[in-house]
Design goal:
Elements: H1 7-13, H2 29-39, E1 51-58, E2 65-72, E3 79-85, H3 101-111, E4 114-118, H4 131-145, H5 147-150, E5 152-162, H6 164-178, E6 186-190, H7 203-209, H8 220-231, E7 253-261, H9 265-277, E8 282-291, H10 302-316
Parallel strand pairs: 3-4, 3-5, 5-6, 6-7, 7-8
Antiparallel strand pairs: 1-2, 2-4
Helix pairs in contact: 3-10, 4-6
Length: 327
């Protein structure tokens, strides 16, 4: 394979068969070993010493919603707060995956912001839209209502997520805006899935990604299946399912993290253009040599650490975090 990936990832992608006919069934013991070798980092993650974690549940419209709260012990006074959603194609992921646990802990440690990770209901066993989004909106309203008790500054409340979690974050903003409710001060989106169909990948990027194992790609059929499973259909999708097709005027200031070699890259890039054209302050970061979901890798990787710094800096840079729109 000749792919200019980060060397750390390149060594792991070589362990995955590139044969298009390979059955990626994860219940197969040999395949389970291959996946474990690819996804498991060589050293265990150590929680930053300045972060404390607590688990809680918040009321939801369907069932109580588990949340995990990350608090920097060296932060003083009312702090900014971030509601964060993991990815997993709407049907996978949990509060323990790196994209949730490690990302939340690192943003809290690096910025001093309070981070609330949301264990929204997954689109499995008949659960579909709008249930996951309902959970996220309920968690957001809980954060707004309890900001004082949590020690958070109600003027600096942010929302964000990775991949499908980024979709849910942006969709929550769409829903809040449609109801003329206060919006977040800031939105943080990592390699978001915001459009269907996805915009095409540039030829140069496509030629590089052609060398990747098919299981690490998100082809048209996989994207179609993801949205069909989540929404129950693939036609006439509401803007709450594909927020990239919504009117983004009035959206909060946004940071978008993009993986260089990722079928979802064009969605993040297009959304950045849409926001800019609507007059929304937007910053992007291209994580060089990274694949989709790179926040699931160890923050010991320099490029992953830089991505975490990009999000953390949204809370620490002068002037970052505008006030929420008053009711």
């Amino acid at each position: 394979m000749s792919v200019p990936l980060d060397p750390y990832l390149l060594g792991r992608t070589r362990r995955i068969p590139t044969d298009p006919g390979w059955d990626p069934d994860r219940t197969n013991p040999d395949n389970a070993r291959i996946y474990a070798e690819y996804f498991t980092d060589p050293t265990a993650y150590e929680l930053p010493g300045a972060v404390v974690i607590s688990d809680d549940v918040v009321p939801g419209p369907h069932d109580p919603i588990p949340v995990r709260i990350y608090r920097a012990t060296n932060a003083h006074g009312p702090v900014a707060a971030l509601l964060w959603m993991h990815g997993g194609g709407f049907a996978g992921g949990d509060l323990d995956m790196n994209e949730s646990h490690v990302t939340s802990a690192e943003i809290a440690a690096r910025s001093g912001a309070l981070v609330v990770a949301v264990g929204y209901r997954l689109a499995t066993d008949g659960v579909r839209y709008p249930v996951p989004l309902d959970d996220v909106e309920a968690a957001w309203q809980w954060l707004v209502a309890n900001s004082d008790a949590l020690g958070a500054d109600a003027r600096r409340l942010a929302i964000g997520g990775g991949s499908a979690g980024a979709n849910l974050a942006a969709a929550t903003v769409v829903r809040l805006g449609a109801a003329d409710r206060p919006l977040p001060a800031l939105m943080l989106l990592a390699y978001p899935a915001l459009h269907f169909p996805l915009p095409a990948v540039d030829d140069d990027v496509h030629s590089v990604m052609a060398g990747l194992p098919p299981v690490l790609r998100a082809g048209a059929s996989a994207i179609r299946a993801m949205f069909a499973n989540y929404a129950g259909r693939i036609s006439d999708l509401p803007h709450e399912v594909v927020p990239g097709h919504a009117n983004v005027h009035g959206f909060p200031a946004t940071r978008i993290l993009i993986s260089e070699y990722d079928d979802f890259r064009p969605s993040g890039e297009l959304f950045a253009l849409q926001l800019a054209e609507a007059g929304v302050p937007v910053e992007t970061r291209l994580a060089e040599g990274m694949l989709h979901g790179h926040l699931n890798r160890t923050p010991a990787l320099p490029e992953v650490s830089r991505s975490l710094d990009f999000f953390a800096a949204a809370f620490t840079q002068a002037g970052a975090g505008v006030q929420i729109r008053p009711e």
